[in-house]
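Q: Could you predict the 3D structure of 5-carboxymethyl-2-hydroxymuconate semialdehyde dehydrogenase?
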Amino acid sequence: MSTQLQENIGKAEGYLARFKDNTLGHYINGEWTLGSGETFDNTTPFDQSFLGKVAAATEDDVNAACEAAQAAAAGWAATPGAERRKILHRLGDELEKRAEEIAMVESMDCGQALRFMRQAAVRGAANFRFFADQAPEARNGLSLHQAEHTNFTVRSPLGPVAVITPWNTPFMLSTWKIAPALAAGCTVVHKPAELSPLTASILAECAEAAGLPKGVWNMVNGFGTVAGKALTQHPAIKAVALVGDSATGKLIQAQTAQTLKRLHLELGGKNPVIVFDDADFDRALDAVVFMIYSLNGQRCTSSSRLLIQSGIKDKFLTALKARVANIKVGHPLDPETEVGPLVHTGHYDKVTSYFEIAKQDGATIAVGGKSLRDEMGPGNFVTPTLFVDAKNDMRIAQEEIFGPVLTAIEFDTEEDAIKLANETVYGLAGYIWTSNTGRAMRMAHAVEAGMLWVNSENNRNLPSPFGGVKMSGIGRDGGDWSFDFYMETKNVCIAHDTHKVPVLGR
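A: Sure. Here are the predicted structure tokens for 5-carboxymethyl-2-hydroxymuconate semialdehyde dehydrogenase:
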């Protein structure tokens, strides 16, 4: 064990001690409470050891959080945008103060390598600062002129909203949803994933330290079947923003039907990375490896299908095999680790089941395809895996595995690539590698996805829209698209007193 790893483990144990010693509760109306429900154990995917007990919210606990958000809604909506900006900037400052703590807690809670989590607080702070700066103008609309009327639009916050976030990169995705909601003037009830709940409590503590009024930010822990269902069905909640899988999205859409809540659903994907013969070989190779094996492959925008043109296939796959075999799997707190343990034993079982499915489908396991528990102990470790000789109708090419597993499929022509890319129920993201500008433009129009990157890995741009099509979701995040979701638009039409008013009954 390296000196740096020993030092990191010692620091992490210090940050995690309070969670082991005290049950993690809910944050409701500015107070921490254990609520009225039972507790469940939270464990680390590194070795299944105990991280602490977590309170599971009941329907009564969720009701209390929603009522607190409703009571605070009018006051927060009336708070000037400039004041909201100051508070949210302070929140960003609080996050950066606790950056190391956030990174280490998140690494041990969800298994992500520390090298990726070190930027979690920085990215979270950037989310709050970006949307904070938009808060003073968030209500502004359009001016639309006619010959005898002038129309203008104004926007107002919806009120209390629910934010339900996943376990894969919980901290950053929570800030990505909550920051624009608060900047818009909405109050929030946040339900983090039960598999990785710890950093959500740090977020709530930072919000309190930044001076958010009581009831503006509420957080409940627990399970989707109880807490999530109660939250999405509560009449005070005006909108639900979810990051999760498509099955959960379907449930929430059904649960919100009776109250006609506004929905933003960022769901699953089986995203293609399309590499043409004329691509920049080295840059494309780097991007292909990074976009599936970083974050343990547990990334909604990961490129889990490699569509590789026949002329470059053999050379590219040879280089790819060497790179995948060289990826370092290890302790999430080790600075050298590139892939850590999968988040939970249930998810580990799901990912490893595809090793046998690949064989049944008729694909070849070129690299990996096995558990590492015999070598690395009881943690949820698997080898970074590459499937080759695959066809697009195989389960490994159609189903979201959500792990460090890549499926390679050969194609001949541009038309073949488009067909393969689009033959899926998903449509979140796609990546195109070619030096032909015309082809890049054609592909950009033809590939069915909410987001496409050309000659690049996933590059985050906060003003740009983020979201999917087909079974990958409904709606868009980012920039003004976020405010359109969290705010209601009203049109006002003012006559110039020059038009003729229709007359009846005279």
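Q: Anything worth pointing out?
A: The two ends are 94 Å apart (CA to CA).
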